[in-house]
Write a structure and sequence with these properties.
Structural class: alpha/beta
Number of strands: 7
Strand order of the largest sheet: 1-2-3-4-5-6-7
CATH superfamily: Ribonuclease Inhibitor
CATH class: Alpha Beta
CATH topology: Leucine-rich repeat, LRR (right-handed beta-alpha superhelix)
Shape: globular
Oligomer: single chain
Number of domains: 1
CATH architecture: Alpha-Beta Horseshoe
Helix content: 10-25%
Distance between the termini: 40 Å
Length: about 180
């Protein structure tokens, strides 16, 4: 394992597909305080370890695809108006147990979020409509890419979300990626 302060200048760390123990996550924070990009795809991270990641103040890109993270974990994200606001700009939650609760219970506290991947999650049309409506109140203002492949999103919701986000984010380049879930899944 690493020693605290061993690589303090490390900016990118990819631990995808590694069998990390629960003590690895506080170690990541202690050893690599300047991390800007962290990939934990297909690792055993759970809601219990997620709060350690919030301590990485410089983190901009976080990849948690196909992990056991749920909406409950995202409640550890600090209030966006606090001095401890988390600056994550790109977040991949593909294949996690994230649901509509995540929209108002954590993701909305990421003021710099530009790219969000929710493919294969439990977020549905209602959750996406909520996300779009929240842009009217200053949330998700920098969001320019939203991937909801393999979710239960219909064409009407897709159009509504695109229209509302473009209107309130002033980003005419906003992209909403939707590939419907196959019927045999």
């Amino acid at each position: 394992m690493w020693k605290a302060g061993e690589l303090p200048a490390l900016r990118r760390l990819d631990l995808s597909r590694n069998e990390l123990s629960d003590i690895a996550y506080p170690g990541i924070v202690a050893c690599f305080p300047q991390l800007q990009e962290l990939s934990l795809d297909r690792t055993p991270i759970t809601d219990r370890e997620f709060p350690f990641l919030v301590r990485l103040r410089n983190l901009r890109k976080l990849y948690l695809a196909h992990t056991s993270i749920t909406s409950a974990a995202l409640k550890a994200i600090p209030d966006m108006h606090s001095r401890a606001a988390w600056g994550v700009e790109e977040l991949d939650l593909t294949g996690t147990d994230i649901d509509n609760e995540a929209i108002t219970g954590g993701l909305s506290e990421l003021p710099r979020l530009q790219s969000l991947t929710l493919s294969g999650t439990k977020v549905d049309a209602k959750g996406l409509r909520t996300l779009a409506e929240m842009t009217q109140f200053g949330y998700f203002r920098q969001l320019s890419y939203l991937d909801v492949d393999e979710t239960q999103i219909d064409a009407e919701t897709k159009k509504y979300v695109e229209d509302v986000i473009r209107k309130h984010n002033w980003d005419t380049n906003f992209q909403l990626r939707v590939v419907p879930r196959r019927k045999d899944q």
